[in-house]
Design brief:
This is Barnase inhibitor. The protein is an alpha/beta fold. The protein has six helices and three strands.
Length: 132
């Protein structure tokens, strides 16, 4: 019988984007001497495997407890603040990209930070996602 790896994101620990990455690092990077930064690209890379607790690159269960709280705290307000922060740092981030994302959110067509995370998770066939 094949061993199934399991990781549980505790939604009670998540109150903002920084907390989300602290939780991800707690689960996946506990044996590393470095942590992934607050980056959706880094999160996507992590889920491909090859480092951290997902070194084996095998399939795993990803359980997310109290997901409704996470959906709320990583929702519209947080996402708007996220893109506004990017606008305040034009030397680091594309202002046009951030403006287009904010406009889409204002028009009710943009993705929240939570929805982007969900899209990343769903794009990885190695993840058996279990919302709870």
């Amino acid at each position: 019988m094949e061993k199934t790896f399991s990781f549980t994101i505790n939604g009670d620990h998540i109150n903002n984007i920084g907390d989300f990455y602290k939780e991800i690092n707690r689960l996946f990077m506990q044996d590393e001497d470095w942590k992934i930064g607050q980056s959706l690209d880094a999160l996507d890379d992590l889920f491909y495997g090859g480092f951290g607790a997902h070194k084996s690159m095998e399939k795993f269960d990803l359980i997310w407890t109290n997901i409704n709280k996470s959906k709320e705290v990583l929702g519209l307000e947080t996402t708007i603040a996220y893109y506004q922060d990017k606008l305040s740092k034009p030397e680091q981030y594309s202002s046009e990209f951030a403006k287009s994302k904010l406009l889409a959110l204002e028009q009710g067509m943009g993705q929240t930070y939570f929805e982007i995370i969900m899209e990343i998770i769903q794009s990885h066939k190695s993840i058996n996602f279990i919302p709870n």
